[in-house]
TrEMBL record, chain A:
<dbReference type="InterPro" id="IPR000515">
    <property type="entry name" value="MetI-like"/>
</dbReference>
<keyword id="KW-1133">Transmembrane helix</keyword>
<dbReference type="Pfam" id="PF00528">
    <property type="entry name" value="BPD_transp_1"/>
</dbReference>
<protein>
    <submittedName>
        <fullName>ABC transporter permease</fullName>
    </submittedName>
</protein>
<feature type="transmembrane region" description="Helical">
    <location>
        <begin position="71"/>
        <end position="94"/>
    </location>
</feature>
<feature type="transmembrane region" description="Helical">
    <location>
        <begin position="180"/>
        <end position="202"/>
    </location>
</feature>
<comment type="similarity">
    <text>Belongs to the binding-protein-dependent transport system permease family.</text>
</comment>
<dbReference type="InterPro" id="IPR050366">
    <property type="entry name" value="BP-dependent_transpt_permease"/>
</dbReference>
<feature type="transmembrane region" description="Helical">
    <location>
        <begin position="131"/>
        <end position="149"/>
    </location>
</feature>
From TrEMBL, chain B:
<feature type="region of interest" description="Disordered">
    <location>
        <begin position="1"/>
        <end position="22"/>
    </location>
</feature>
<keyword id="KW-0067">ATP-binding</keyword>
<dbReference type="InterPro" id="IPR013563">
    <property type="entry name" value="Oligopep_ABC_C"/>
</dbReference>
<protein>
    <submittedName>
        <fullName>ABC transporter ATP-binding protein</fullName>
    </submittedName>
</protein>
<comment type="similarity">
    <text>Belongs to the ABC transporter superfamily.</text>
</comment>
<feature type="compositionally biased region" description="Basic and acidic residues">
    <location>
        <begin position="1"/>
        <end position="11"/>
    </location>
</feature>
<feature type="domain" description="ABC transporter">
    <location>
        <begin position="2"/>
        <end position="247"/>
    </location>
</feature>
<dbReference type="Pfam" id="PF00005">
    <property type="entry name" value="ABC_tran"/>
</dbReference>
<dbReference type="InterPro" id="IPR017871">
    <property type="entry name" value="ABC_transporter-like_CS"/>
</dbReference>
């Protein structure tokens, strides 16, 4: 019961973020980039639901367009990580022992390297942008996928249905595509959701530090940064994007947890 | 048909200390026997006696440490996978675990036709096989978890028969089933062996089960064959003390069935 609850809460929160981002393509209450000195630092009113910032821009509109940036970074970063990490993990689990060891040791090396540091280095070399942030977060997330995919692959490879497939003369490719991939897809999906939460947080941190999304594109991390100097005067400007980030991270984590309970291979038998 | 000579298989355990040698487990220590075409050869022994290792070696799913295995006069123990094609269609296995031997994410028709790869006409073959093992014709569209243990073993049998093998290996194929279902699957195996003129290698820890389907039996203990002969002779007049122990200890299938019928 609790397991369905966390899945439901995750779906609702993630749905909220995705819905907001989609709506922002066709409608926002105001132009999120419109600077208007006459309405600076307004509190929440009927016209400006979350008020305005120091340049008179509508916070609610920025938040909506910012959700787009957040999702965009998450999707691309997790996409890179899953598409590179999963095949690597399967290779490590099915290939020769030395190859598996090699892949996993390199994996440990990347895992030991902080994602933010990598993003800052990439940003320093290629210029700070959403793209460098996405690539850095994606590369740093590859090891989690490789690990989970290898663990799942080893488990699948030890089953009798794989032995039966080998006895039936099926190739390694066949076994990887027909048996390993479908049986670890649940694990990969769960990892995607959890990694998505981490990517959202990393993007916000990078934008906050000025190594992520460049102005004027709205981003939750940069909204936080811009609110910093006014924290004592108007904490609302920090609270709104802060709450958005927290809810998005919570949503993807809950979704991941809920999915894990659904896909856990140990629970498979009971279905 | 199958000839096994001085077969040994030694496994290396992971290191238990940094400097010491890796401990070795001798799963098979010098096993030799011959199986004739059409023979129904039983292998009996307790768990850890090396019988599953032996089956895996016979199916060329593992390599022996030393010794040789020949199939119809051809050595198979030292061939690379790409040259084992002839064996892959001739030798098929049925495993013990009715759940673990079927991929939970595959439809039954895909499971059964798996040894056929992408051969044309595999749909028709699946239909024939479902009929041969006594499963309803619409089973192909369903998934393994929708079937009972006995039905799953029927699916495994259908998959094993798909490439028209000449040798069927059964590794504890009925051990996980309850008594009544066990009898049905045993009868089915006996019937299929007869109908398709198969050579059967049947592994079990239960001598009573082996006696029901086999004509010859090898008794294994700690990686060696301690007694080998016609199944009735071994059963009625066991020579080796271990065989006697095994007969005394094993629950009798016939007695269990009789008890079931009395109820």
């Amino acid at each position: 019961m609790t397991r369905n609850l966390s899945l439901l809460a995750g779906v609702v929160l993630v749905g909220l973020v995705v819905g907001t981002a989609l709506v922002s393509f066709v409608w926002t209450p105001h132009d999120p980039l419109l600077v208007d000195a006459s309405v600076r630092l307004l509190g929440p009113t009927g016209d400006f639901v979350f008020g305005t910032d120091k340049l008179g821009r509508d916070v609610a509109s920025q938040l909506m367009v910012g959700a787009r940036t957040t999702l965009y970074v998450g999707v691309v970063a997790v996409g890179i990580a899953a598409l590179v990490g999963t095949p690597l993990g399967i290779l490590a689990g099915m290939g020769a022992r030395w190859l598996g060891e090699l892949i996993m040791r390199v994996n440990d090396l990347v895992l030991a390297f902080p994602a933010l540091l990598l993003a800052i280095m990439l940003g320093a070399v290629y210029g700070a942008s959403t793209l460098t942030a996405m690539i850095a977060i994606g590369v740093a997330t590859v090891p989690s996928f490789a690990r989970i995919a290898r663990a799942g692959t080893l488990q699948v490879m030890s089953t009798e249905y794989v032995l039966a497939a080998r006895a039936g003369g099926r190739s390694r490719w066949w076994i990887a595509l027909r048996h390993v991939l479908p049986n670890i897809s649940g694990l990969v999906l769960v990892q995607s959701s959890v990694s998505f939460a981490i990517a959202v947080l990393a993007e916000a941190a990078l934008s906050f530090l000025g190594f992520g999304t460049a102005p004027p594109t709205p981003s939750w991390g940069r909204m936080l940064q811009e609110s910093q100097e006014l924290l004592a005067v108007d904490p609302r400007l920090a609270l709104v994007p802060g709450a958005a980030i927290a809810l998005a991270v919570l949503g993807f984590n809950l979704l991941g947890d809920g999915l894990r309970d659904r896909f856990d291979p140990r629970l498979e038998v009971r279905r | 048909m199958i000839s096994v000579t001085d077969l040994e298989r030694t496994y290396r355990r992971p290191r238990t200390s940094l400097t010491g040698p890796r401990p070795e487990v001798h799963a098979l220590r010098g096993v030799s026997f011959d199986i004739e075409k059409g023979q129904r050869f039983g292998i009996v022994g307790e768990s850890g006696s090396g019988k599953s290792t032996l089956v895996r070696l016979l199916a060329a799913l593992d390599r022996p440490t030393s010794g040789s295995i020949s199939l119809q006069g051809r050595r198979i123990d030292n061939l690379p996978e790409r040259r084992l094609g002839f064996l892959r269609s001739q030798v098929q296995i049925v495993f013990q675990d009715p759940m673990g031997s079927l991929d939970p994410r595959m439809r039954v028709r895909d499971i059964i036709s798996e040894p056929l790869g992408r051969q044309p006409g595999r749909r028709e073959r699946v239909r024939e096989l479902l009929d041969a093992v006594g499963l309803p014709a619409d089973s192909g569209e369903r998934y393994p978890h929708q079937f009972s243990g006995g039905q799953r073993q029927r699916i495994s049998l259908a998959r094993a028969l798909a490439p028209r093998p000449s040798i069927l290996l059964a590794d504890e194929a009925v051990s996980a089933l309850d008594v009544l279902v066990r009898k049905q699957i045993l009868d089915l195996i006996a019937e299929l062996v007869e109908r398709y003129e198969l050579t059967l290698v049947f592994v079990s820890h239960d001598l009573g089960v082996v006696r029901r389907v086999c004509d010859t039996v090898a008794v294994m203990r700690a990686g060696e064959i301690v007694e080998l002969g016609a199944v009735d002779e071994v059963y009625d007049d066991p020579r080796h003390p271990y065989t006697r122990e095994l007969i005394a200890a094993a629950p009798n299938l016939a007695a269990a069935l009789a008890g079931l019928e009395e109820e």
